[in-house]
Amino acid sequence: MKIEYFKLSEFDAKDANGNKIPGTGGQMRASTLVKCDALRELYGKPLVVASGIRTPERNKQVGGVKNSSHLLGYAVDWRDIFDDYLIQFLDAAWSAGFRRFGIMATGIHTDDDPTKGSPAIWDYPTTTPRSRWQAAKIWFTKKLKEQ
After folding, report:
1. 130-146 helix and 86-96 helix, angle to the nearest 10 degrees
2. Pairing of strands 100-103, 108-111
3. What whole-number distance in Å separates Cα of residue 137 and Cα of residue 141?
């Protein structure tokens, strides 16, 4: 499998100290990586991976849910997706095939975990401003109606 816009190392897990564990990005699911590459192509702007594959220890440390899709390589958190580009990013992610979105304060979680309900969108206790969450919910509702 060839990915054009990313290196597998960008998806590497981090240890308890936040240091990358080399080679672990290779545990990401091919389906997810293909969608990530398509997302970058459609979005047309560089993307920064905040979190790809996670170890159980790191997942617990960052407050991830017990059955996090990051543990299985189906999830990516994208850093620095600000309000000005929120809808453009979500449209590109949807067109790339993602149907699960977590809206963070300045980032977005995407995953294609086949064991979880889809389509889905959620926020986090730290998602501010609330207008960001409201905009994402309105976008999601429109997408569902278009299906």
Report:
1. 40
2. antiparallel
3. 6
